[in-house]
Amino acid sequence: MTSNRCEALIRRLAGILYETRAIRFASWIAGYTARRRGCPILIYHRVNDEGDDFLPATPTADFERQMAYVASSYRVMPLDEMVERAQADDLPRNSLAITFDDGYRDNLTHAAPILHRYRLPSTIFLATGFIGTGAIPWFDRLAVALKLARAEAVEAPWGETMALHDRAARLTAFERVQRHLKTLGDDELQRALDVLLERLDVPNGATLKNLMLDWADVRALAGLGFGVGGHTVRHVILSRVTSERSWAEIRGSRTAIEAGLGSTPTGFAYPNGRSPDYSPATIELVRKAGFAWAVTTRLGLNTAQTPPYELRRRGPWEPDVATFALKLAVYRVVHGRETIDDRSEDSRIRAP
């Protein structure tokens, strides 16, 4: 069976179960079939209706349908409470948490009103060097450059030549370049990025205004009940930089949030967040900086066994709410039967 046909069958099954309200029952059963009470943490980035493949986002209507379902089927918890109750093995069977990364302004303009309407707590993790500064993350700079480049092809600093003759080719180039740059140390990444931007022949003034939050926006989110956590200063992958740079990035994000909000953040999110992107030394720096817990992007539920500095956090990311609901239930069943025994996601059953 082809993957497209399989997905079509999943959507059809999900639609039937959703219309009959059987998915809500399935999600309730999922909480009771797990070996231990566990809580999934959802991760989002942008929520808007721009429909830009270079700057992908969850459409507002899709996000609202997802949140309406979550509000009716799960006990959504602030992360501080979730961590405390997980450590005490006292999580509700249908618990769930919601997070956002980086600090995009549409989290305030598009996502926050929906979350407020459904009274759903959430946490946003800020790359503080982009908050109120006009700067944007390197991957967004790359996306804009490839979208607007006048060049028809580009040779990357590592010798690979990529066609840019149409939108599809540019999106493919974006994925390939981004994947390669993430393997580099931050200084090498910035040098390679600068070379690429020059070779792409981007029109002067091509940038994104108001992409990121400012500190007044962050305070508005906090006033709406958002928790605020650190996500480094410049969104560097911490395993790719020195311990001194890691400390500056981790501690710097905490200090900036303290200055911007007048309160102390308790949580941290590792940029990229996979097993290779942080290390035991990184965890120790996060603890030393004063954070009480940290989230990854590794598969799994969070239970009394989950290390508080390696909390699990993933999708599902599905535009169809019925499929979203079904996959979330399956995710809870699959990962609720696992134990935390190694640092490899590849050896685990991959839920959708």
Q: What is the topology?
A:
Elements: H1 3-19, H2 22-33, E1 41-44, H3 60-73, E2 75-76, H4 79-87, E3 95-102, H5 106-117, E4 123-126, H6 138-148, E5 153-155, E6 161-163, H7 167-181, H8 186-200, H9 215-223, E7 227-230, H10 243-261, E8 267-269, H11 280-288, E9 293-295, H12 321-336
Describe the protein in words.
The chain is an alpha/beta fold and 352 residues long. The protein has 2 domains: 3-133 and 209-336, Glycoside hydrolase/deacetylase (TIM Barrel, Alpha-Beta Barrel), CATH 3.20.20.370; 138-200. Helices cover 45% and strands 10% of the residues. The protein has 12 helices and 9 strands. It has helices spanning 3-19, 22-33, 60-73, 79-87, 106-117, 138-148, 167-181, 186-200, 215-223, 243-261, 280-288, 321-336; strands spanning 41-44, 75-76, 95-102, 123-126, 153-155, 161-163, 227-230, 267-269, 293-295. The strands form 3 sheets. Strands 1, 2, 3, 4 and 7 form a 5-stranded parallel β-sheet that branches. Residues 339-352 have low confidence and may be disordered.
